């Protein structure tokens, strides 16, 4: 039972960390309050995701040196303070520092710890367990988007940042105390897909699979983070939805984001990373074509459900594939490096969507870009993610 309690605690921690995916709820209120444009309102979100990625790469080496609960406490403090301090500023540049750098850095410090601990508690179900725990990150907007919308309507965006930050500070630190590695004699269960040899970070950087996985991950997160950042504005501008209704629909999309993680974690274990990657990109292309065919409430819900599922998919494909390709022993360091693709995807995705909107006056052109990115991902996956046996894809 202990490992399932830890897994549940991990899900709750990731719900707190994943509230960044509700940032689109804050964008319009902040644009009105601070008199800024769509590109500027994306700065805190973009910086948050970039620092998240950077600190994730650095903190990977700390997990084997320091107690997991200590790392979570430090990261959780940074997350909570980042949100709280953002509520005291009225300048988007300062908010980029408090929310983006401090809050995003805190998530980067914390994010890898529950995954590393739980992957060792579930040697028999690595892909599924890792997908389940990080489903909290994707599930977060289901809870936090309507909560944030409700609080913004009552207190405004700045006070809402203070309230949520206080909640996160308490929950992350208190639940973090449960995280300890299992006993060394926990019975290992082998997976036939996992690398037969353990590959350290230096050797991984010489392996073409790393560059293929990194690029595919970057494309997958670029697509997902771009879409998540514009979900609310697209609903309001293209489909003419009310902000409150859009917030409720985001809760539905969050379910698909969450489902994508255990689903594609399990699929990556069963059908190998290449097939899981191809399926993800095909879904992106299908969703984009649906959205371009005739923008309506139905096509909006269908397309964005698939696109949010895609981001959840990659946040399970990438860590599971890292273990399959490079082994368990150096996983924390290796995945920390692989995860830098997430930061690059965040920077490119948020920047491109904001620029397209400001220049062309509509978010519709984003979906043509998604089709091109999906096709590019399919090509790279075929070139780099095959197994040693070319018949095994």
How does this structure look, described?
This protein is mostly helical. The chain is globular and about 55 Å long. The protein starts with a helix and ends in a 9-residue tail after the last helix. Helix 1 packs across helix 7, helix 7 crosses helix 11 and helix 10 packs parallel to helix 14 (340-360). It has a single domain (2-384), classed as Up-down Bundle (Growth Hormone, Chain: A). Residues 388-393 have low confidence and may be disordered. The protein has helices at residues 2-17, 23-34, 38-41, 43-59, 68-86, 92-121, 126-155, 157-176, 201-204, 208-237, 243-293, 297-326, 331-338, 340-360, 366-384.
Biggest pleated sheet: none
What is the residue-mean pLDDT, rounded to a whole number? 87
Q: What fold name goes in the CATH topology slot?
A: Growth Hormone, Chain: A
> What's the architecture in CATH terms?
Up-down Bundle
Relative strand content: under 5%
Helical residue percent band: over 70%
Uncertain spans, ≥5 residues at pLDDT below 50?
388-393
Rg over CA atoms: 20 Å
CATH class (first level) name:
Mainly Alpha
- Based on helices, strands and strand pairing, what is the structural class? mainly alpha
- How many domains would you count in the coordinates? 1
How many β strands by DSSP?
0
CA-CA gap between termini: 36 Å
Secondary-structure element series: HHHHHHHHHHHHHHH
What is the CATH superfamily label? MFS general substrate transporter like domains
Number of helices: 15
Shape: globular
């Amino acid at each position: 039972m202990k490992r399932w309690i830890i897994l549940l605690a991990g899900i709750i921690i990731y719900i707190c960390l994943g509230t960044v995916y509700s940032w689109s709820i804050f964008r319009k209120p902040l644009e009105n309050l601070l008199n800024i444009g769509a590109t500027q309102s994306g700065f805190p979100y973009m910086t948050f995701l970039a620092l998240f990625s950077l600190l994730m790469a650095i903190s990977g080496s700390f997990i084997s040196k320091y107690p997991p609960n200590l790392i979570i406490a430090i990261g959780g403090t940074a997350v909570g303070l980042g949100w709280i301090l953002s509520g005291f500023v009225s300048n988007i540049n300062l908010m980029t520092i408090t929310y983006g750098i401090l809050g995003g850095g805190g998530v980067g410090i914390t994010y890898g710890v529950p995954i590393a601990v739980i992957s060792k508690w579930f040697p028999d179900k690595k892909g599924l367990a890792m997908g389940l725990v990080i489903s909290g990150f994707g599930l977060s907007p289901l809870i936090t988007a309507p909560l944030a919308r409700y609080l913004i309507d009552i207190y405004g965006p700045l006070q809402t940042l203070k309230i949520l930050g206080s909640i996160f500070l308490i929950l992350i630190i208190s639940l973090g105390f449960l995280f300890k590695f299992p006993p060394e004699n926990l019975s290992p269960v082998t997976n036939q897909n996992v690398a037969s040899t353990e590959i350290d970070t230096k050797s991984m950087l010489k392996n073409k699979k790393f560059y293929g996985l990194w690029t595919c991950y970057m494309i997958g997160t670029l697509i997902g983070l771009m879409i998540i950042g514009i979900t609310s504005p697209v609903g309001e501008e293209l489909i003419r939805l009310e902000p409150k209704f859009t917030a409720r629909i985001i809760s539905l999309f969050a379910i698909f984001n969450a489902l994508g993680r255990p689903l594609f974690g399990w699929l990556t274990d069963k059908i190998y990373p290449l097939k899981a990657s191809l399926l993800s990109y095909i879904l992106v292309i299908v969703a984009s074509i649906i959205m371009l065919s005739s923008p309506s409430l139905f096509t909006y819900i269908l397309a964005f459900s698939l696109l949010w599922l895609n981001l959840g998919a990659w946040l399970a494909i990438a860590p599971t594939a890292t273990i399959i390709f490079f082994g368990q022993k150096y996983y924390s360091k290796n995945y920390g490096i692989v995860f830098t693709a997430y930061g690059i995807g965040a920077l490119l995705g948020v920047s491109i969507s904001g620029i397209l909107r400001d220049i062309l006056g509509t978010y519709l052109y984003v979906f043509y870009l998604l089709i091109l990115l999906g096709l590019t991902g399919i090509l790279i996956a075929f070139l780099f993610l095959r197994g040693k046996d070319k018949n095994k894809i």
